[in-house]
Design brief:
Layout (H helix, E strand, L loop, with lengths): L1 H14 L16 E6 L2 E6 H5 L4 E5 L6 H19 L3 E6 L3 H10 L6 E4 L4 H5 L14 E5 L5 E6 L6 H15 L4
Parallel strand pairs: 3-4, 4-5
Antiparallel strand pairs: 1-2, 1-5, 3-6, 6-7
Helix pairs in contact: 3-6
């Protein structure tokens, strides 16, 4: 009985989507960190990326895990659509850059960058820490307008709605900011 109760509570905690801690309308914390695109390391700067348009910033627990691989594939498939809307996609995890160099090629399919948050400061600043394992990021996605304001946030350990939801938020932002 004790074990089944524990299992039920643990399952409920994992299955229920949590709210992202940084609400829509908040100023996005600026950061720069090592990142990888197509297996090549570079310095990613949020401020520089925002000069080009909105940024889809998504946090994921760990490279090469099942859910994170699914999510990376889905973002890779959608990257051209995000680019057509003027948006940059960047994934962030605690993984070292050497591991992300491989992940960016195999799972991100050379389509978008992934950044290393080895010290956990970025995920802490975005309140994207996985509560049950604080050394890992929670699966949290943000859409940040070029003004640096968060216009959409979503947290759910299941990867299946992150691309769909962030795409809808970028499309809405784009429609609201079309020059007539």
């Amino acid at each position: 009985m004790r074990r089944s109760l524990f299992t039920a509570v643990a399952t409920a905690l994992i299955a229920v989507p949590a709210l992202a801690a940084l609400p829509d309308g908040s100023k996005a914390p600026d950061f720069s960190t090592d990142a990888s695109l197509a297996g090549k390391s570079f310095k990613f700067s949020l401020a520089d990326a925002l000069k080009k348009g909105p940024v889809v910033l998504y946090f994921y627990p760990a490279a090469f895990t099942p859910g994170c691989t699914v999510e990376a594939h889905e973002f890779a498939e959608a990257t051209d659509k995000f680019k057509a809307l003027g948006a940059t996609v960047i994934g962030v995890s605690h993984d070292p850059i050497e591991k992300l160099n491989k992940f960016s090629v195999s799972e991100c399919r050379n389509k978008f960058a992934v950044a290393s948050d080895a010290d956990g400061n970025v995920m802490k600043n975005y309140d994207a820490v996985l509560p049950v394992k604080p050394e890992y990021a929670n699966r949290t996605s943000y859409v940040i307008a070029p003004t640096g304001v968060i216009i959409y946030s979503y947290t759910d350990l299941k990867p299946d709605k992150h691309v769909e939801n962030t795409m809808a938020a970028v499309k809405k932002w784009q429609a609201d900011h079309k020059k007539t």
